[in-house]
Amino acid sequence: MQMWRQALVIGILILGLIVPHQAMGLEKVQIAVGGAPGALIYLPFDIGKALGFFAEEGIEPEIQSLKGGAQAASALIGGSVDFSGNALDHVIKAKLQGKDLKMVVSFTHLPGVTLVVNEKYRGIIKSPKDLKGRPVGISSPGSATHMLLSYILVKNGLTPQEVTVVGVGTNTLPPALEHDHIHAGLAIDPYVTSLLKTGKAFSLIDLSLEEDTRAFFGGLYQFTGLLVRAELIQKRPELIQKMVNVMVKANRWITTHTPQEIAAVLPSEAVGDQQTYIESLEHSKAIFSKDGLVTKEGVSSVLRAFEAFGGIPRGTKLAPESLYDMRFVKKTLGKR
Question: pLDDT by residue (tens digit) across 2-36?
């Protein structure tokens, strides 16, 4: 018995030496994400952590979940983080301000957002035109949902100034809608599915489907992905490659597994109510990129949307190819 105890103590001591040594081998990487934990448009981060894809590349991610995309992009531009999970919009805005950001891998090639309306206004708000003069929620001012709302309004004969735009966050949009602080809002899953399932809201426009997105924007629409400062691409190409490897692997895993399998590997705090989460994945599964490639078609749709509501100054032309760098994804995929 004494020998067994000694062996156990020695084993614990050895393990105590090994684990810190392994942890020391991981490089800490600072990442800002433009949304609450559990938001499906940033699911590759959750999968990368849950399945150990980051650790396989020698990375220990330190992820900051911020209120909206504008805050995440500001953190990236300011240098307090190395990468951000953001919509492509923030690359365009940075470019217009003389800052050079690049999207190096795609998460979602559809917006994956739904314009939801408080159930009490069913029969009153029948189209986006009926939002005139009403409070409409977005994640935060300057976010991708702000831009999408502006485009939706312009497409329906309104100006962005004809509604009251309210920044309410992502996971806090449902209570804002329920308590009538906003009459409508652009929401993402799993919050959309929860609102519809409980009968608290109805859908006015759903941009989680390829057919509807193509009809609305004239093509695919590049939405979220991994952003990085161009200077880091030059200084640390090996780190960029590792991060891209993780994200491509995560996206491939998402697109080749069922919603039930995805929910099963995630921690409970990311999933919440499991059945609602599974239904959210079923609703939004089409938004995810299978290969992580950003396409000129998807980027061009975003640029057209910006131009439609005056988001790009007249006379300013941005080449789609200047907004992304696919060298690392192609290397991951074995392409040349």
Answer: 443 344 334 433 444 444 434 559 999 999 999 88
> What mean pLDDT, rounded, does the chain reach?
92
pTM score over 0.70: yes
Alpha-carbon span 72 to 195, nearest angstrom: 26
Q: What angle do CA 24, 25, 29 make, to 5 degrees?
A: 90
> Which is it for the CA torsion 151, 152, 155, 161, positive or negative?
negative
How many Cα neighbours within 13 Å face the side chain of 317? Answer: 2
Beta carbons of 44 and 107 less than 8 angstroms apart? yes
336 pLDDT band, cuts 50/70/90, is: very low
Pairwise CA distance, residues 91 & 298, whole Å: 14
Q: What does residue 72 show for φ and ψ, rounded to 5 degrees?
A: -65, -45
pLDDT in tens, 130-148: 999 999 999 999 889 999 9
List domains and CATH numbers for the chain.
2-110+221-332 (3.40.190.10), 113-206 (3.40.190.10)
Predicted local confidence at residue 24, as pLDDT: 56
Q: How many CB atoms lie within 10 A of CB 116?
A: 26
